[in-house]
Amino acid sequence: MAKQGNSVEDWMANATQTAEADLGAGLSGNDTRRMAAQRRAGRERQKQILNLQKENILSQRTSNPGRRAALEAALAEIEAQLQAIG
């Protein structure tokens, strides 16, 4: 489950970087600032999503060791993604 999220995030980051590289030479100062603001807003949305997922995982209680291990792994993945976003 967590690996799929990573590959989507990687794909989105690569697509954004490619688009920025293609457009970078012809952007005005306003366009550059607008793109930077959009990237910041995107990071903030991603942080909110990850924090909601984290809260959901932390709210789940189980006595099943396999389920608990899966929740702990998912939580670790979310923490790593949050740390990567900054």
Structure description:
The chain has 86 residues and is an all-alpha fold. It has a domain at 29-86. Helix content is 86%, strand content 0%. The protein contains three helices and no strands. Helix 2 (29-59) runs antiparallel to helix 3 (65-85). The protein starts with a helix and ends with a helix.
Describe, in short, the structure shown.
With 86 residues, the chain is an all-alpha fold. It contains three helices and no strands.
Keywords, please?
86 residues; mainly alpha; elongated; disordered N terminus
Topology (elements, then pairings):
Elements: H1 2-23, H2 29-59, H3 65-85
Helix pairs in contact: 2-3
The coarse overall form would be elongated
Q: Report the portion of residues in β strands.
A: under 5%
Mean pLDDT: 82
**Percent helix:** over 70%
Order of helices and strands: HHH
